[in-house]
Each structure stands twice: as structure tokens, then as C-alpha cells.
Amino acid sequence: MALVEVIKYDGTPDVYAWKHPNEELGTWTQLIVNESQEAILYKGGKAFDTFGPGRHTLSTLNIPLLNNIVNIPFGGHSPFAAEIWYVNRISNLDMKWGTTAPIQLQDPKYKIIIPVRAFGQMGIRIEDSRKFLVKLVGTLSQFDQADISRYFRGLLLMNINESISSYLVHKQISILEINAYISEISNHVKEKMMPVFAEFGIEIVNFYMDSVNTPDDDPSVKRLQEALARKAEMDIVGYTYQQERSFDTLEGAAKNEGSTQAGLMGAGLGMGMGFGLGGAFGQGMAGLGRVMDVTGGTGNVQFNHSTSSHSNTQHTCDKCSQPLTPGSKFCAHCGDKYNSCDQCGADNPEGATQCKSCGKAFAKPCRSCGAALQAGVKFCPECGASAVMTCSSCGHAVQPGQKFCPECGQRVTPEGEQ
């Protein structure tokens, strides 16, 4: 051993703890600690003194805790057995993380199972050197970034899986829209992991989620992307899936030369193609069956002139404001029921008492016998039952659709009974 030994460590930034290999130290040993480091002296398996940045001489004068432990029979210059640990306290902001395998989640919007991957980076710093060495490093001679990533991978992936699933379920968003919330998810994951890392003397400086995506080669992802692309194309052109199926049916009938309706269907398609595959053609084809009757035996065409005066008027859905196909019972865009006014044909909300377009009062069924009651009548002309709903608690009149009595607050059942 040299007369004056100098201990210094200039390692790479990814090494967080390093033990000096020589355990035979003299009281004249010089210990050099850099600004971003902290040195801890161990004797007999216990941590004694901590040395900050600077140059330190190991002696019993500046290490008072060694007075009762180190036996110095040679005037204070004999060697003694001890360990010197260097702890790197620099902030490492480039710790990459990622899911080793895709997480299987159900998309709440499209109801299909989709594999999800997440990637990002985080920054950490050793806050408590003694706690870090005692609880995490132990007897290892070196502890680096790869060891931390391996130790905390399970905790990290558990919180990421839980956070992504919570956002999908509670916010009812598609996995394809999750990237709009990665900042919120990153903060949520960081707050949940900080107390766990602090137990081992580690501070989380930052946590970033760079990307949440799906594998492009997964069959379910491919089908979803194809369906969304097809829907976008139909929205741009201006027709729905039901109308597209009608086009395919008409085209198939026109190509079937053995059918008696082939000539008529071919002519209809020819006229339709002349006007383009727009919304007008889809509505015209949907109304073709209502004004034409093709007989199977003779191929004759009979036109039906009994359509209402408002059949050519374009109406929109009361719920989504999309155009309604004439003659349909439900909206092809949102599935809401088409409650048409028999006077103007406008769509009205379920349970409406009068048309929102022309103001005509709707007939309502008798609660006793089901007979149609005109607006304003108080008793059913068929069975004599009262047509006015009243609260059974206070007798106040209750309007159709009200769930609670406006006078006393008593709950009213859909049949008007409490």
C-alpha cells in the first residue's frame, strides 16, 4: 500500500453507487469527492460518516465515530479495514422505459380487444445516500441504471396499465385518442410512484410518456383502421353504410341477366350514375321502392301516387341533425327512432305533445284502454277513464314525461302511478 493513498472515483453518469475495491485504509488516506458525489464510510458492516464534496483525510480526528472501533497500536498511522462507497447524486434525466409486451385492453368506443404499447422516459436523483445503499444496493460492488430499471419495472408497468385503463373506462375514449391525455397520465403515474421510490432514497425528477400506440401488424388493429377509413370515405362522399348495401343489392340485380327486373335496375343505376354517388342518389334509390311496384310475373311497373304531400321534403334527425331517409323508422346515423309528424313529417323527440315544426298537437293513448285521445280531452270517449295524470300524493296535475311531481316532489312512475 502506498504511503499516501488517494481515493477518487470518476465513473460514468449511469453508475449510481460504486464501492472502492481496497478495504485496507490508513489514517492518512486522502478521499476526494466531486460536486455531484457523496462518499460514505462503512466499518464492520455499518455506515458511519458521510463526506460531501471536497478533499478529506481519513483520521480519528475527523472521524470521531471510529475512536471506539479502530485499534491503533502504532501511533495513529496503522491501517484499518473499512469500505468507501461513492454515491452519484447527479440527476439522470434519460432513463428510458417501455412495455415489454403489449397490454390487452378493450376499446370502450368500438368494443374490441386491442393490444396497447407505451414508451417514455423518466429522470431520477439519489436523495438519501444511506437509505439507497442500505435498502437497495446492499452488498453489490456497483449499482447502475440497468439495475434500477430492472428492480422497478414491475411497479412502473402496473401503474401505467392501471392509468391507461382508468382513462379509457372513465372518460369513454378510444385507444386511438389516448395520446391527447398522455400529459395527464404522466403526472398521474409520477404521483403514484414517488412515495415508493422515496422509500429507497430516490427522488423522481420527472416522468414523461412519449407515446401510447398499437402494433400495426395486429389483425384487430388492421380491421379497426380499415373500418374507420371506410367510414371517413362514406362521410366525405355523403352516403351511409345502409345506402351502400342498397347500391350493392341494386348493382347485383342489374348484373343478373336472368331476372325480369334486370333491365329496370340497370336503367335505374344508369340514371343514378349520371347524377353521381351522392346523398341525392341514395335517397332516390331508397324512395324507388315506395313509388314503384315491380311485379314478378310480367315485369310491369306500377307507380304509387298515394305518397303524402311532405314525402319529398328533406327532414333531419331531432337527435343528431343528420338527414333522414324518407320512409325509414330509425335514423341511419345515430339509431334514434323517427317520430314523424303526420302533417309536416318533421322528426320530434320521444313523448312530445306537439310538433316542434308545425305545432300540431299529437294524439296520446288512453292509459286504460289504449284508444287515441285528441289534444285537450279530459276523459276517454271509449272507456271513460281520466286522461289527466295527477299525483297520487297531492292531486296536482302531472304532465307526460315528468318523473317527479312539481308540487310535492313525489316520484311518478311511467304509467302515472306512484
Brief account:
The chain has 418 residues and is an alpha+beta fold.
Strand and helix map with partners:
Layout: E1 6-7, E2 15-19, E3 24-26, E4 30-33, E5 37-43, E6 46-51, E7 54-57, E8 79-81, E9 83-88, E10 92-98, E11 103-106, E12 113-126, H1 129-137, E13 142-144, H2 145-171, H3 182-198, E14 202-213, H4 219-237, H5 241-255, H6 262-275, H7 279-291, E15 292-294, E16 301-303, E17 364-365, E18 372-373
Parallel strand pairs: 1-4
Antiparallel strand pairs: 2-9, 2-13, 3-8, 4-7, 5-6, 5-9, 10-12, 11-12, 12-14, 15-16, 17-18
Could you explain how this protein is built, in words?
With 418 residues, the chain is an alpha+beta fold. The chain is 27% helix and 22% strand. It contains 7 helices and 18 strands. It has helices at 129-137, 145-171, 182-198, 219-237, 241-255, 262-275, 279-291, and strands at 6-7, 15-19, 24-26, 30-33, 37-43, 46-51, 54-57, 79-81, 83-88, 92-98, 103-106, 113-126, 142-144, 202-213, 292-294, 301-303, 364-365, 372-373. Strands 6-5-9-2-13 form a 5-stranded antiparallel beta sheet. A hairpin with a 6-residue loop joins strand 17 (364-365) and strand 18. Helix 6 (262-275) runs antiparallel to helix 7. The protein is elongated and about 115 Å long.
Low-confidence stretches: 67-78, 267-278, 288-309
Report the structural category: alpha+beta
Succession of helices and strands: EEEEEEEEEEEEHEHHEHHHHEEEE
Shape summary: elongated
Number of helices: 7
What is the makeup of the main sheet? 5 strands, antiparallel
Strand portion: 15-25%
Mean pLDDT: 76
Number of strands: 18
What proportion of the residues is helical, as a percent range? 25-40%
Calculate Rg over CA atoms: 40 Å
Sheet with the most strands: spatial strand order:
6-5-9-2-13
Tell me the span between the first and last alpha carbons.
97 Å
